[in-house]
Amino acid sequence: MEIEDYLNSSFSCSCGREHKVPIREIVVEGDALLKVPEIIKELTDKSRLYIIGDKNTFGAAGSRLAAICRKNDYKVNKVILEGEHVVPDPDTLFKILEKVEADGYMVACGSGTINDITRYLSYKLNKPYTIVGTAPSMDGYASSVAPLTVDGVKKTYNAAPPEAIIADLDVLKDAPWRMIQSGFGDLLGKYTSLLDWKLSKILLNEYYCAQAERIVREELTNIMEIGSELKDRSRESIKVLTKGLIKSGLAMLMVESSRPASGSEHHFSHFLELYGSLFDQGIPSHGNKVGLGTYFTSSLYLKLSEVDFSRIELNHDRSSRKEDIKEIYGERAEPVIDNLNERWKNELISEDRLEQKEDKIKKLIRESSKSLENVRRYLDQIGILEREDVRALDTDWIKKGLKFGFEIRNRYTISTLLRQAGLLENWSDEMVDSYCQKVL
After folding, report:
1. Neighbours of 411 (CB within 10 A)
2. Between 395-404 and 424-438, two packed helices, what is the crossing angle to 10 degrees?
3. Interatomic CA distance for residues 362 and 53, integer angstroms
4. Count of H helices and E strands in the chain?
5. CATH of domain 3-174
6. What is the pLDDT of residue 85?
7. Where does residue 240 fall: left (phi above 0), alpha (psi -120 to 50 degrees), or beta otherwise?
8. At residue 83, does pLDDT exceed 80?
9. Which of 17-26, 141-150, 265-274, 323-332 has the lowest mean pLDDT?
10. Percent of the chain with pLDDT over 70
């Protein structure tokens, strides 16, 4: 199905749920900025627009967008967030609240952080908004959840999807290369996030939607076919990437969770973000870290497929995990421990159940083995592993991210299983040491 087939719809699904997609318009084409006034006119009768962005996104599109809207008789208030890197935290939320009044309509102009902040405010204020994208850098444009940083830890909150998503290909293709790489890395991560989702369904009977999976998997196929063309920044390759990211967000919107698009590889990225904040060090953008996380997580799955499950001895020791969290997360440990306590009972599995599900789990891995084996090649196509900021990551941080990043979310993944099986620590050390020899 095309994007348009999902818009402004509600339908019953074979998963047993009623899916709703309230987004009314999605435009991904050249010169899309020129269509913004007429699209907004269909969405609201407000004559004042609050265009929200930062200095980079206003340089990319916001200033031109404001001029276009003024020529079409809109009163425009620019809400420009200061700082080189805007953080989606309560301080930033308040800065927007100070400047946005009830008399107008919100237009977010940006990508990840700008959209996350605006859609959370949209949800809390019951005030709809439109997003004008400036980079194909992440999959959250259509999402109904917002990852925000609170007390130094990234948490996911309910939020409102935009009424419209407008992506001007001429703006997107001129985005910084690291952001295009980031979008590719974020989309690549769906290979392992989908496996994590199905793994949890097999072991814990977690809710699962085959339709949401199909939406994401179709886009994975499309982007991997043209991945190497992204270096040319052609309209077509950028369009394929952008649509893939948007449809990934639609899958999340349908199931009201980031589950179809976020698993071990994202937890690894979130951990590195936390450490970067904790130790005040710069780190790669989200999707580039997700790409690196996918490199390791795909290897974990391939390695698990070779294990005799009858030889696995599970260890459910909450106290040892709690002590590890205290040591690794330091001053940020408390919310992670709360998360451990919340998830604990739901994730207890027996050795008998694990062994009973061995064939299903190995079949799951086998069906994706070709893609998992090709992850390194996909990453090399657009140079994520060659990036200086990726290569500069502290290898001790990488090991800790693989061993303890899964604790950051209440979500069962292969990392959770391997920790329960006593395999995660040694496997993480071996893989990072091998990565250092082969890649660095």
Report:
1. 25
2. 150
3. 46
4. 21, 10
5. 3.40.50.1970
6. 79
7. alpha
8. no
9. 141-150
10. 100
- Look up residue 84 and give its two tokens: 């080189």
Supply angle C-alpha 349, 364, 404, rounded to 5: 50
Which residues does 121 contact at the CB level (< 8 Å), separation at least 6? 93, 96, 97, 100, 106, 127, 129
Handedness of CA 186, 187, 188, 193 (dihedral sign): positive
- On the question of a common fold for 3-174 and 188-438, the answer reads no
Q: Residue 84: pLDDT band by 50, 70, 90 thresholds?
A: confident
For the chain, state the CA radius of gyration.
21
Strand segments, DSSP code E, in 102-184 are 104-110, 129-133, 145-150, 153-158, 164-168
N-to-C CA span, the chain = 41
pLDDT of residue 149: 82
Per the document, the length of the chain is: 440
- Proportion of the chain above pLDDT 90, given as a percent: 89
The amino acid that residue 174 corresponds to is D
pLDDT of residue 4: 82
Geometric angle at alpha carbon 18, from 14 and 22, rounded to 5°: 130
* CATH value of 188-438 in 3.90.1210.10, 1.10.3720.10, 3.90.870.10, 1.20.1090.10: 1.20.1090.10
Q: In the chain, what are the domain boundaries? A: 3-174, 188-438
Of 382, 219, 225, the C-alpha closest to 291 is 382
Which DSSP symbol is given to 173? T
Average pLDDT over every residue of 326-352: 96
Give the helix, strand, coil percentages of the chain, each rounded to 5.
60, 15, 25
